Every structure is written in C-alpha cells, then in structure tokens.
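[step 3/7] inverse_fold.run input=structure_tokens len=219
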C-alpha cells in the first residue's frame, strides 16, 4: 500500500543512486528514454532489473498485435520483474488481454482520456499510464484526468493501478498524490527536488553555524 514511486529513466546510475536513498519502487522506460541513454535496449533492461526488485516497464516497438506479442515474449524473458508496456491502441489492448491471460504484467501507455483508461482496465492492464505533462502542454487539465480515472476504477473495483506519468514538477507529484494515483513515475531530478525547500536549507545553515559556535562535538 501507499503511493509508489517509479523512476522514469533508462540511466542506470541515476536509478542506482535513488535506489540507495530508498526512493525507487520500480522503473519505467520508453523508446525516447532508451534513445537518450544511448544504451542497448535489452541490455539496459536486464541491468535495471538487477538493481531494482520492483516492476520495470519495457515498451514494445511493434505497432501490430502479432509483432507486439512476439516482442513481449522476448522482453518478459529478460527478468521476472519486467512489465510489458503497450500503447493504448486496439492492437495494444488485444495484446494486453492475451498477456493478462498468460500472467504477464502490463503497463498501457500513452493514455490521454478516461475512456481509454476504461478500455485498458477492461483488458486487464496491471497499470494505466495517463500522461499529465503532455496534457498540461496543451493547456488541458491533466490532473482532472487522474481524478476521473480514479473515480471510474473505484466505481467498479478495477484493480488496474493508476500510474501518473509525464510528471514534470514536484507540484505534479503532490497533485497526483491528492488525486489518489497508485503510482507516480518521475524523472530522477524531480524525485530529488521533492526533498528540497528553501527554508530547510536556510534553517540548516543557521543550525550548523550555531552548533559550531557551541564548540561541542557529538562524537
Ligand atoms: O514514460 C512516459 C512519460 O512519463 C513521458 O513523459 O515528459 O516525455 O511527456 P514526457
């Protein structure tokens, strides 16, 4: 229980660092993030799965059902904690239904409407990924989508977890938590910035100065 944090990156050094802070419950990747990392896709997924026990989303590249299913088999064989990321298309939903029947976990991605999320839940998706930031880019209230999906899933007891994606700021994380998202997938820099507050820094500087003035040592 509790809100889970996934790291939205394919950079293993960032994942390992945040994991050591206890801030990583899972990882999400996508073709753009893999391209940015400059790494071999299957190799980097295997490496991430060795760092993190939690779910690691790896996205298919095929656009047709047969291709997606064949790629899913290859990706799922990399490690037990691989979650197959599928696009929210009719072929993606068909693939999701079959993987569900086979006991393979799925993350249905590129969700921009409550009806799309309803279809993913009906297909048995483990996670639905509504993209907040990209809706905000279009001046559409991304958080309203999270709230709508939460309500619809709760109305029917769907077990699909709401994974708030395309998070760009600490405020997105707060709002996703208020809206009852099960998971937020967050870029490494945004996760780190959650711990920051100007008054924390200011207060700490004052405490450090006053402590030095006492001339004492704890050790
Ligand atoms: O992993 C999918 C999502 O989080 C992408 O975010 O910032 O590219 O819209 P962004």
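[step 3/7] decode complete -> sequence:
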């Amino acid at each position: 229980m509790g809100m889970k944090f996934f790291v939205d990156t394919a950079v293993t050094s960032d994942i390992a660092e945040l994991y050591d802070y206890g801030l990583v419950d899972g990882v999400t990747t996508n073709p753009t993030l893999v391209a940015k990392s400059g790494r071999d896709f299957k190799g980097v997924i295997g490496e991430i799965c060795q760092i993190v026990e939690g779910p690691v989303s790896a996205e298919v590249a095929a656009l047709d059902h047969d291709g997606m299913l064949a790629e899913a088999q290859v990706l799922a064989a990399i490690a037990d904690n691989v979650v197959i990321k599928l696009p929210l298309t009719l072929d993606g939903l068909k693939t999701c239904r079959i993987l569900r029947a086979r006991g393979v976990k799925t993350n249905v991605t590129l969700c921009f409407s409550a009806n799309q999320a309803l279809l993913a839940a009906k297909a048995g998706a483990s996670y639905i990924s509504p993209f907040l930031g990209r809706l905000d880019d279009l001046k559409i209230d991304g958080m309203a989508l999270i709230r709508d999906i939460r309500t619809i899933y709760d109305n029917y007891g769907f077990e699909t977890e709401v994974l708030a994606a395309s998070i760009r700021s600490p405020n997105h994380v707060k709002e996703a938590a208020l809206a009852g998202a099960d998971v937020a997938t967050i870029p490494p820099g945004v996760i780190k910035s959650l711990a920051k507050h100007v008054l924390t820094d200011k207060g700490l500087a004052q405490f450090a100065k006053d402590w030095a003035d006492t001339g004492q040592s704890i050790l």
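[step 4/7] annotate
The mean pLDDT is 97.
The chain has eleven helices and eight strands.
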